[in-house]
Amino acid sequence: MPISCGVVNCRNRYPKKAHSFFRLPIVITKQGEVTKEMSDRRRRCWLAAINRTGMSETVIRNLRVCSAHFISGKPSALYKDTDPDWVPMVNMGYAMKDLNTQVVRHDRLKKRKETIKKRDAAMSLVELGSFSDISGGDAEVYIDVDSKLTDLELAQLEISRLSGKLQQADTEIARLQNDNLKLIEEKESLTSAVHKMKATMPGDFANDDDKVQYYTGLKNFVTLMALFNLLSSEISEAKNSSLSKFQKMMITLMRLRLNLSIVDLSYRFGVSRSTISKVFLEIINVMNKILSPFVQWPDRDDVEHVIGTHRTVRQNFSILGATCPIDYLITKSEDESPILDKMVTVCCALTNLCPSVVSFD
Asked: pLDDT band at 127, cuts 50/70/90?
């Protein structure tokens, strides 16, 4: 079907003449209020420029305007509303305003925008405060913002602006590096503090005999590891257990030494309370079995020298001076010693692993 131009007295038709044909602009509703308002205004301006009355919606929907009615041969973009081609204005079939006036206005506005752009570039230079010109000088330069700048000068202004931003970026990088160093030092300090607070793995006690003595009552780290090597073969370790053999031993030693509660130990080692109770009873039995030979009772002649030894054991192992559960006094058979007796034996053996406080000389 041939396409005809909708402008009054225009005989251009497609495909008889080599003209492009453009639809009436539609109202754009899905790109924001500004776009909707501008597209609606443009549509109304097109209809006013075509200046035909009695057109139905069907005619308007199928209306075309050929390229002969635009200065450049096609409509301008939506947001270029100062362009003469924003609305068809050439040979519209009736008297219109002087086209030359519209073109002159458009050119004047375009030049004004370019001037503003150049002024902004010059003002950026002024804000930087200094500018190295073509000769390489470092003196401060004042620019007449109303003067015309060449492309080379504009390029140098842009380079100067970017150089200023680069310098600011370098300053910011240096500041961030300094902050990073401070954060690293703070991290190392916190890591050291956490290491001092942790008491669950062999590495937490290495090179810190005071920590060993506080948590276990033993003299040093060497004694602690010797005790572990002595007990480890008898300590069970299930495949799915969350506690290592060393941790099981430490749970028992810390409970004997500091009388830490089941709840406290469960939080420290990240296991349930029932697990802590089972581990404590298991390791007490193992330690009682292996360490019993370390308990040497004095002869009658030495009793007077060691009369205060029981007080030293109670001081070293706080659990002996605390209230114990009734279960620690009950045995399943007559041949078995109660848990309390085993705890006393273990504490005495551990005391004997340390230098004696009683002289036998």
From this structure: low
User: 233-236 long-range contacts, Cβ below 8 Å, gap at least 24?
Assistant: 234/286, 234/289, 234/290, 235/282, 235/283, 235/286, 236/282
For residues 252 and 287, the answer to whether their CB atoms sit within 8 Å is yes
Q: Largest alpha-carbon pair distance within the chain? A: 140
Is residue 254 within 8 Å of residue 260, measured between CB atoms? yes
Residue corresponding to tokens 């503003």: 116
Phi, psi of 13 (to 5 degrees): -135, 150
Nearest of 110, 350, 147, 333 to residue 249 by alpha carbon = 350
Alpha-carbon span 71 to 93, nearest angstrom: 15
Task: Check: CB of residue 52 under 8 Å from CB of residue 8.
Answer: yes
Q: Which stretches does DSSP call E strand in the chain?
A: 3-4, 13-14, 21-23, 64-66
pLDDT digits (tens, 9 = 90+) for 6-38: 888 888 887 776 788 898 898 998 888 989 999
Task: Enumerate the β-bridge partners of residue 3.
Answer: 14
Cβ–Cβ under 8 Å, residues 259 and 319: yes
